[in-house]
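FW: tagging you since you asked about this chain on Friday. Here's the raw sequence from the shared folder, copied in full. Didn't touch anything.
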Amino acid sequence: MSVQMRCKNVSLGYEDGIVTEGLEFTVSKGDYLCILGENGSGKSTLIKAILGLKAQVKGDIEWCGDTKKNEVGYLPQQTLVQRDFPASVREIVLSGCVAKSGLRPFYSKEEKALADSSMKRLGIDTLSKRCYRELSGGQQQRVLLARALCATSKILLLDEPVTGLDPKAQIDLYELIASLNKEGITIIMVSHDINTAIKYASHILHIGSRKQLFFGTREDYTKSMSGMEFLGTQEDENV
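HL: got it, structure written out here
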């Protein structure tokens, strides 16, 4: 498998200190990488560093082969303000083409066709004229995923994509993401749900303190100290 991204000895932090350090991992075409860790361990900060939205304190994040930083689709955590955005579904999905359109004040025929095919691919083409703010949480996430697909056919970065969704909508979205991965799209997803990560991911990155760091296959993760401790902690919390 060709490597798409490489992270070398990366440390992340803020003005008041380092949150995680010594991150070493690679992402290859077709991988499904889940990023796990305790709250405050730097999961979302890592996603922002990968996107170039926040500089790492130390180390290098490199895009490899034919994958470029501007060819990454991003699904961020939603805020209440974003959920109430007064635009049509099609307008929001089309906005995923902005990075490709550059300074053009209009969308090309090809970009419009891409938006339409992305909506159909995710089963929301019948919602294209609906106002985004009127949709359910699960429908809104599908819209944002279609928007991300307009930005890339290679790699998707998802930051806690099921937060706030009911259990059925969570399962539907996870299955949808898995189907996109099977079609060849690389997935990098921040999650707090270790059981879901083990079910869907090909690889796990566990971040936090140096003794908690882990990168490898999901099978190896379940046998590792980090995996066993984190799984035990989550099971205790659910009792």
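FW: The CA atoms of residues 20 and 39 lie 12 Å apart.
HL: agreed, and The domain at 1-67+154-239 is CATH 3.40.50.300 (Rossmann fold).
FW: great, closing this out.
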